[in-house]
């Protein structure tokens, strides 16, 4: 069985968005494994961020890093082609508003991107069970999507543990309120892709925070012997 890899992806939502490429490059230089780009449409969530034109500009400045877009949008199917054209590597979308999840997954793959399935705190984990075979990753939200800097919801950890028990090789991502005080719960439950926004962006030493988050995940993976 291949070992899981710890992956730390800072969310740039609470960074200085006027300096998106400089901030993103700084995070990559400080050890980020990927960039988690929060796309919001003001409809699926009560907030608005940026879309594919901005992601495309960012890609032109940062040609090689792994880009994940976290699509907090009501119609994820609509943005597949534009995001693929913008150079996105992984398209992670919420299953809640989608009627035909396998169809959206198929279109994402056809467009050359990896598939992430995201669920909000109120959505039971078994909703994604039927779709696991179509997905490269499942994202368990640990806050209500929409804003950075919210309080981590520990009561989401049973969803992560359940997924890890049933799918030992699945990439499981957590997002929302994850930082130095909450990472051990996530890694012990079995998450290996870690999104961290304010805890990294606002840190005096972001490099140290990224490396501590990574160590926590690696230690948990090692303790399970992969
Ligand atoms: C929330 C976003 C998260 C958020 C993470 O809707 O999906 O990615 O920006 O930020 P923190 O780590 O500050 O909760
Ligand atoms: Zn996110």
What does this structure look like?
The chain is an alpha/beta fold. The protein has one domain: TIM Barrel (Alpha-Beta Barrel). The chain is built from nine helices and eight strands. An eight-stranded parallel β-sheet has the order 1-8-7-6-5-4-3-2. Helix 7 packs parallel to helix 9. It starts with 6 loop residues before the first strand and ends with a helix. The structure holds D-xylitol-5-phosphate and zinc ion. The site of zinc ion (ZN) has 6 residues, from strand 2. The site of D-xylitol-5-phosphate has 22 residues, from strand 2, strand 8 and helix 8.
Per-chain topology:
Layout: E1 7-10, H1 20-29, E2 34-40, H2 52-61, E3 66-72, H3 80-85, E4 90-94, H4 101-110, E5 114-119, H5 126-129, E6 137-141, H6 157-166, E7 171-175, H7 183-189, E8 193-196, H8 198-201, H9 206-223
Parallel strand pairs: 1-8, 2-3, 3-4, 4-5, 5-6, 6-7, 7-8
Helix pairs in contact: 6-7, 7-9
This protein binds D-xylitol-5-phosphate (DX5) and zinc ion.
Number of domains: 1
By oligomeric state, this entry counts as: single chain
- Biggest sheet strand line-up: 1-8-7-6-5-4-3-2
Which hetero compounds are present in the coordinates?
Answer: D-xylitol-5-phosphate, zinc ion
CATH architecture: Alpha-Beta Barrel
Strand content: 15-25%
Number of strands: 8
Query: What is the helix tally?
Result: 9
Largest sheet: 8 strands, parallel
Q: Predict the CATH topology.
A: TIM Barrel
- The secondary structure category is alpha/beta
Percent range of helical residues: 25-40%
List low-pLDDT spans: none
